[in-house]
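Human: Not sure, check this?
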Amino acid sequence: MADLSLNGRQSYATTGQYSKLDNKGNLILKNIKATTDFLPKSFYIKEGNFRFENEKMWFEKFFATYGKSDFALNGYLLNTINYFIERRGTLHGKFGLNSNYILIDEFMALKNGDNLDKSIEVEYTKVENPKSSGVVMIPKNLDIALGVNVRKAEFKGLALNHVKGNASVEKGQVYLKNTSFDVVGSRMSIDARYQNESPLTANYDIAMKVLDFDVQRAYKEIDMVREMATAAKNVKGIVSLDYKLKGDLDENMKPIYPSLEGGGIVNLRDVEVKNLKMLSAVGDNIGARAFNDPDMKGVNIETYIKNNLIHVDKFTFKVSILRPTISGTTSFNGLLDLRIRVGILPGGIIGFPVVVTGTHEKPKVKIFSKKGQGIIDALYNKKTNKVIRQERRAEKKTKRQQRKEKRAQEQRAKEAEQQINKDLKEK
């Protein structure tokens, strides 16, 4: 049902002369099916009550579903008449969004659905990548602010409950500001940004804070925790987290780990660490079984991630009367290159060095040594979203091999310089 009166030139809307417009009236829609060119399924507008007032289109009552997801909107759009007439430009608006349930998975561009009006880009990509789900695509013609209140959102089996905060869609990107939700029994606060680069790739950055994080529950329920913190399986208790990350997502919206970069602090607020293989191996080698049950309560661990390596800053903890200090590097595939100084009382002033290499599952310990075995980082091409090289253990080389390589490098440099001089003379 429509009761509309639209008066004024189209140029008034395109040039922002809204005071010269005289648009008013109401439009009521019920049980309308709608599609977009970047989503696999259709929207169903169960009820839409719109009021037009000059440049604004007010959503006075709006309820829609998309697959299993539901949305209620209240707010307004600007310049809608001009947009729908010309089919170009940017839609501006401000809304409150309420939902009982949002399943993010069903918004992924290459998922199966009833929408036959998808863009050519999406259709071709789906044909060429039949086993991929794609990423969530964000329209570039929106500039909208949202106050968000979602009872439950779900992504790849991970439930986010009582999502509240501020979101915006601008120039093909989604921003979350002062947004919080319950995840694995803890309240997490985030600021984040998301942008799709194609139907198959996306990038993001996120700053997150969480208190009272149950380590075991997070390890069991969150894939990324298992990948990034393999040692967490030996930790029970509560930690807090303050971390920033940026990276890319692949064709199934999974993190591309070599693309990750960032850092932050994990505070071991109230934890038990038992039988961690790396520490147990140290204890076995120095004759201190207490390493099987160290006291790490209250310890801050600061790390930085880049190129699939996790760099660990120095931190000190208690093992009976000992005061070990650990720093070094680990990798996502389990490689270790850690330095430990085992401090002895009083106050750990006197101590001796220990090096741990090998892997998380098979650590190798050297006592009274400061020389580890480095890890060569992974290489990732951000333009193609491809991993060029996985991280690997640096090869041990004899002094003779090192001298030979140095001579070869010097010879290559000399030949390159001669070639440059030759090219300059020819010019």
In short: The first strand starts at residue 2 and ends at 7. The mean pLDDT is 88. DSSP finds seven helices and 24 strands in the chain. The first helix runs from residue 10 to 14.
